Predict the structure.
Amino acid sequence: QVHLVESGGGLVEAGGSRRLSCTASGGSFSNYILGWFRQTPGNEREFVAAIRRSNGLTYYTDSVKGRFTISRDNAKNTLYLQMSSLKPEGTAVYFCAASGNSCSPFYTSNYDYWGQGTQVTVSS
């Protein structure tokens, strides 16, 4: 059983940067696909970024390409999401997730473990 805890959320001005972290306990990151999703009230959780263990391949939703960077430190069991040039529409609760299979990283149903989420608010 993997327990995920996000941190790093908060209030940031538009155009600013923020780094989210997700630390795992009760298991190792080394055998999982790791992803970041976000959710706003009344909406479904949406894919933001993911990274594969096997080859380090990364995936991003179009709206964050060039501005967000996902990375992982297996030794520290920590996943990161570096967010730059933040926009007000980036305001959401951000969740990290871990998948033990090699299915598509884009869908929430493919992930086995979820953190509790961290709020990011981007002010205009």
About this structure: The chain has a mean pLDDT of 93. The two ends are 40 Å apart (CA to CA).
